Amino acid sequence: MNEKIFDSSFFSKLENISIKTRMAMTQGTAGGRKSNVKGNSVEFSDFREYTPGDDFRRVDWNAYGRFNKLFLKLFMEEREALLNIFIDCSKSMDYGINKKAVMAMRISGVLTYSALSNLDRVIINKVNDNNIIQSSSYMGKGRFQETLQFIEKTDYRGSTNLSGAIKKKNFTGRGISVIISDFFTSGSIINAIKYLAYKKQHIIFIQVLSREELMPELNGPVRLVDIESGEDINIIITPKLLDRYKENLKTMRSSIKEQLSSYGGSFIQVTSDEELDKIVFEDLSREGII
């Protein structure tokens, strides 16, 4: 995209979000934060290899002396979560006066910042057509700028088959999978949910829609052009047709939400012109994501 997504305005909002999050944590009781990284138990559990950005204070120097490799000591309550963020990169996301793609990337940035601050591991997955472009595995706040550069270098084109692409993903164990999309996709969204559940993922769907899609201001004869395929249709927009459209959109959302709920997942719908603070502290916070 040509416009700068992670600008000074984004970072000032991110700082504001960070401050409010810290305030909320200090006002709660110990252990009250919803997190997959827990405590500082002294009971040793496991090792893993060091990744740039990890805390050097947790390096096992005895293991380094034996193997000439850096390893981190993990304790019983310190098993990190792996957060996979999937961004729909189809052309339909590049729509609206306030583009859905911009909101999707900003939400990805906030989730990444929150996870890295919490010592979780993050992988960004750009989904286009039937394929995934996967980032490195990031850990530690020192790599936050690197994640933003990867997110920002995204082209929105063509269509997306979320289910087909996600089934190509190699999951290495339990984790959290966040899919950010308008869900105007080919393939079965339900099959994608079932596959993620089978792979032991806690599933979070964030649907980003533009104000024009939620409340279309169309009337009379119009020519509609599919932004992804280029196909067009001449149609007469009536109040009855608009009501049917809104009802179908509502049914789509309810169906996805019901399927996710049956697997313990969450569904959030946001609008591309909403304030980021509101999305974080009302929508994401309500679901325990932030």
| Strand proportion | 15-25%
CATH-defined fold name of the largest domain: Rossmann fold
Can you tell me the CATH class of the largest domain? Alpha Beta
CATH homologous superfamily placement of the largest domain: von Willebrand factor, type A domain
Helicity range = 25-40%
Radius of gyration: 21 Å
What is the CATH architecture annotation of the largest domain? 3-Layer(aba) Sandwich
Number of beta-strand segments: 11
Which consecutive residue ranges, at least 5 long each, have pLDDT under 50? 25-45
Count of separate DSSP helical elements: 9
Total domain modules: 2
Structural class: alpha/beta
Overall pLDDT confidence: 84
